[in-house]
Amino acid sequence: MTVADGIPAIPSNAFEGCIGLTNVTIGKSVTSIGAKAFYACTGLTNITIPDSVTTIGQEAFKTCTELMSVTLGNSVTSIGGGAFHSTALTSVTIPNSVTSIGDHAFRECTELTSVTIGNGVTSIGLWAFIYCPRLTNVYFSGNSPRSVSANVFEYSDNVTVYYLPGTTGWSNTFAGRPTAPSAPPAITSSSVATATAGQPFTFTIVANGSRIAFNATGLPAGLVIEATTGVISGSTIAQGTHTVTLSASNTAGATTQTLTLTILPEPILIITSPGVTTATVGIPFTYAITANYTPNLFNVSSLPPGLVLNKTTGVISGIPTAEGTHSIILSAGNASGLDSKILTLTVVPAPPLLKINFIIARNEVAMKLQNGGIKEHVVEYTDDFKQWIPLPTKLVGAKDLSQLDPQSTNRPFRFYRVVQP
Question: In terms of pLDDT, which residue wins out, 181 or 267?
């Protein structure tokens, strides 16, 4: 929903109870937000109040129970009583333009952990931050406010109030809570880091404290820093060692640390699978193209009949149909590069098959080799499967069993197998 430019004010109760309202854009002509203007808009999660707005009325956003983020414009001077009562805010920054924070303004903000209060605030109302159990850090940018209720932080027992050195009016306690001077953040992240040329890189500057702005100078081309999170990211081809100055700052000051960043050469992809292998005609065959740095693209120059390549996995598979020796150019690649390698694949003939035919009319048994060619093959026999014994006569083509094994007719059964020459 958009409050259009030209509208000077959002009236009281304007959107009260609009539970389906999740997003609001407020026009730059709006100068005030009335009492209960967005009361109980339970679907609203964040709101940006433009610099044109000067006043936020009482209970304007009260019980917006999903409201986790609010950005206050730099012209707001007063935050009305109960304005953000019972919201889900986790942190809030009150700009220097604000002079007064009303009674109950942030009451029962149970997720609130950090508050930054600008240097213009002079009064904080009754129970402004009551029942905020997770609230631990309250930072003041200016002098101690002149008018403060003693019960500002009642039942918000974990609060410590921080003030800037050089500001006035502070004592050991503020509204019943301990005080301490603010200090610049201390950088605790590592002072060394390594990246690889052409590869994604991430480094996070870690510092204690809050409200921190981060910076990094001397970054190699291609790397950038996100000022609010301290995350350095990107990729670079600037190989070598770089000296980067990291900084973390808040209203109390800044600290720096040197980061030694080493950019290693871009990795070279190399095929690591064997360059020689054997397949057999008629027998299923598998060969996987492997390489370092996880390739995801594969190719081959040509393959013997019966074999195919899966170009995603790099697996060559199938059943060869013809013998021969083949020189195959393999290739594998990914975003870091491409490599090729010659694979010598030898397809050997299929092993011979032993076939026994019984000719009933002549009461003869013939033994024949299939796929055996003209080579002599040894035939072995066994009667008990404990020992295989070679026949004295080798088999070529086909031959009567009685000629190969004269004792075969005297046995109730006998088993034979053929052995490669």
Answer: 181
Q: Tokens 């000719």, residue?
A: 359
144 near 168, Cβ under 8 Å?
yes
Q: Do the bridges between strand 398-400 and strand 364-370 make them parallel or antiparallel, or are there none, so unpaired?
A: antiparallel
Residue of 21, 51, 227, 28 whose CA lies nearest to 37: 21
Tokens found for residue 335: 């975003």
Task: Report which of 69, 176, 82 is spatially closest to residue 113, judged by C-alpha positions.
Answer: 69
Between CA 228 and CA 94 the distance in angstroms is 17
So what's the pLDDT on residue 233? 97
- 183's CB contacts (< 8 A; 6+ apart) are 209, 252, 253
- The DSSP bridge pattern shows strands 378-382 and 114-117 to be unpaired
Decide: 36 and 16 in contact? Cβ < 8 Å: yes
Bridge partners of residue 390, in order along the sequence: 380
- Please write the tens of the pLDDT for every residue from 174-189: 999 999 998 888 999 9
Rounded Cα distance between 197 and 210, Å, is: 33
Give per-residue pLDDT as tens, 59-107: 999 999 999 999 999 999 999 999 999 999 999 999 999 999 999 999 9
Write the DSSP symbol of residue 112.
-
Indicate the pTM of the whole model.
Answer: 0.56
DSSP assignment letter at 377: B
Going from the C-alpha of 399 to that of each of 289, 355, 364, 404, 405, the distances in angstroms are 46, 11, 11, 7, 10
C-alpha dihedral sign at 169, 94, 121, 109: negative
Kindly list the strands in the beta sheet with 231-234, ordered across the sheet, starting from the edge strand earlier in the chain.
201-204, 231-234, 223-226
Tokens of 159: 């609060």
Closest by Cα among 131, 126, 140 to 81: 126
Backbone angles phi, psi at 401, to 5 degrees: -60, -35
Distances (CA, A) of 274 to 121, 277, 298: 75, 7, 15
For the chain, list the domains and their CATH numbers: 192-264 (2.60.40.10), 276-348 (2.60.40.10), 353-419 (no CATH)
- With CA atoms as reference, report the closest residue to 120 among 80, 83, 167, 160: 167
The SS3 of residue 370 is: strand
Q: Which tens digit of pLDDT belongs to each residue from 279-300?
A: 998 889 999 999 988 899 999 9
* Number of helices followed by number of strands (H, E) in the chain: 1, 37
